[in-house]
Amino acid sequence: MFATDRFGTAFSGIFAGMTHTAPAPRDAATTPTTVPITVIRGDGIGPEVMEATLRLMREAGAKLDIEECIAGAEVFRSGDETGVPDDTKASIERTGVALKGPLETPIGFGEKSANVTLRKMFETYGNIRPAREIPGLETPYAGRGVDLVIVRENLEDLYAGIEHMQTPGVCLSLKVITHHGSEKIARLAFEYARATGRKSVTCATKANIMKLGEGMFKRTFDEVAVDYPEIEARQILVDNCAHQLVIRPEQFDVIVTTNMNGDILSDLTSGLVGGLGFAPSANIGSETAMFEAVHGSAPDIAGKDLANPSALMLSSVMMLRHIGQPVVADAIEDAVLYTLEEGTFLTGDIAKEHDPVGTTAYTDAVISNLGKQPTVGERRVTRPLIMPAIDWRPKQVVAKTRAVVGMEVLLEEAEMTAAQVGKAVEACTEGSPLRLALISSRGTKVYPGEIDDVEMIETWRCRFVRADESVELTDDQIFRVLSCLGETFRWSNVQKLQVFDGKPGYTKVSGED
Ligand code: NAP
To answer: Can you tell me which atom of ligand 1 is nearest the CA of 42?
Structure first.
């Protein structure tokens, strides 16, 4: 059985606990099974837009057994640094499905976002954000048929949250990209394209600059694309992607990208179709799915009955398709789109000709429009989504040969020149199989050589390599050089340089031969 989908929120048949082909979607209209879900009202405008969405789902006939839980600001304030209490975790584990309002991290409480914690806790590795032109909404792109979906990797990249101050004035933020994570998200993007009858998947990366991390994402996408010959696989640099999205967004179908790129691009694509008030999303993993609006808690309008609940309503449409209630999902989607197309009852963020109405009155209007159909926008026929099933250790990431060929050490030194640092560092390699290859400052080579046009900072990255390439480096040899460096400098970071199957697992420094 196929589900249908007008807005592009196509999503069906991924049930909690399933990792392979999902069953044909059920529907509350024909199967009176009540589905347990976890509901988190959230912070700021969260409770208002959630109340509106729950009312609408109830009126539309959704069969839900709701477990209400908390997360976010009030949990942080109670002293729980995760922002996600055990009861909430247990509920989501039980239901496998959550509908959540926006969560904020109050300043001064906790360090991590409860949103990111939830995504990581439940391994929801794919963030799916559709952006489709909405009938009746006046935007610079109206009439051009924008209908695209961003599939954003949701767990890795700079969101790994690994940051270290090297000195009080220098920070390193680690961008973590894995082959495993890249393969999963690429497969999810192609499966999503297949399930929703889309023609192309575009991989957006910054592989020209981050050749290893973003480069691996790009290469993995190409490997995966071979398994989906009927779908056009395209590559684009993410900066050009942003440009093309503004110039000609209708050329895109599905865009798959890394976490940070996806965060930025998907806010941009929300803007193309009317703004954050209309952007739904799903966080999808093999076991759990969480549905939420893209927008945050908008504290400036919280509690004033001003918020536009459409984004959460459309997120509930994605959820209802996911839990096998597509007829209810269609009814809600139609009622929201009909109300917007009609244009009489609109919230302040979009009302132009008419006086704006509040969240409650808008919701009343949507509810009264249940059963009506918008005149534009064709439904998309969708099949159940097949969740990728991938071994944790796929063969292609195991190197046949590997060797430690050097190390890099980050040193702190504010007084010396590059040449002075170089000489002092070289003194530590006497009698060692390691030799100093170069020193860089913010990625640019500053030693050896007469380099005086680079703005230098108080950290110096020293690259050591094997003096004799036939010699295998040992940890002990590395420790000895490190220990010597520690007598003269503060060092804060050490990185082994490795070669895998003859290919360097590190990049060249700018200015290096
Ligand atoms: P935001 O909450 O999305 O709000 C930005 C602005 O967009 C609002 O001030 C409001 O603008 C408008 N807006 C957003 N949603 C709207 C809606 N439903 N109806 C009408 N207008 C809406 O972004 P933020 O101010 O950057 O973030 C506020 C808090 O939310 C932060 O603590 C952030 O960490 C958190 N956040 C949470 C999530 C999440 O839970 N997934 C996502 C993003 C941010 P005007 O009224 O000024 O026009």
So the answer is: 40
Provide CB contacts within 8 A for 416, sequence distance 6+.
424
Gap from CA of 284 to ligand 1 centroid (Å): 22
* Cβ–Cβ under 8 Å, residues 507 and 211: yes
Yes or no: say if 279 and 270 are a contact pair by the CB < 8 Å rule: yes
- pLDDT tens for the chain, 513 residues: list them: 334 454 444 444 332 222 233 334 445 445 558 999 999 999 999 999 999 999 999 999 999 999 999 999 999 988 888 899 999 999 999 999 999 999 997 776 656 789 989 998 999 999 999 999 988 888 999 999 899 999 999 999 998 889 999 999 999 999 999 999 999 999 999 999 998 899 999 999 999 999 999 999 999 999 999 999 999 999 999 999 999 999 999 999 999 999 999 999 999 999 999 888 899 999 999 899 999 999 999 999 999 999 999 999 999 999 999 899 999 999 999 999 999 999 899 999 888 777 999 999 999 999 999 999 988 767 666 666 777 776 655 556 788 899 999 999 999 999 999 999 999 999 999 999 999 999 999 988 999 987 766 777 889 999 999 999 888 899 999 999 999 999 999 999 999 999 999 999 999 887 777
Query: Is 43 touching ligand 1 by the criterion CB < 6 Å?
Result: no
Q: Whose CA is nearest to atom 25 of ligand 1?
A: 298
Could you tell me if the CB of 308 is within 6 A of ligand 1? yes
Question: Which residue in the list 263, 334, 338, 362 is annotated as catalytic?
Answer: 263
Confirm or reject: Cβ of 102 under 6 Å from ligand 1. Answer: yes
Tell me, yes or no, if 206 is annotated catalytic: yes
Give the integer Cα–Cα distance in Å for 175 and 260.
Answer: 10
Give me ligand 1 centre to Cα 296, in Å. 4
Q: What CA–CA distance (Å, rounded) separates 410 from 498?
A: 17
To test the ligand 1 pocket, which listed residue (276, 283, 308) has its Cβ within 8 A of the most ligand atoms?
Answer: 276
Residues 115, 116, 121, 126: is their CA dihedral positive or negative? positive
Q: What domains are there in the chain, each with its CATH number?
A: 128-258 (3.40.718.10), 402-504 (3.30.70.1570)
Question: Annotated catalytic, 159?
Answer: yes
Q: Of all protein residues, whose CA lies closest to atom 6 belonging to ligand 1? A: 298
The overall pTM is greater than 0.90: no
Name the phi and psi angles at 97, rounded to 5: -140, 130
Look-up: residue for tokens 């998200």? 185
Cα–Cα distance between 201 and 58 in angstroms, integer? 36
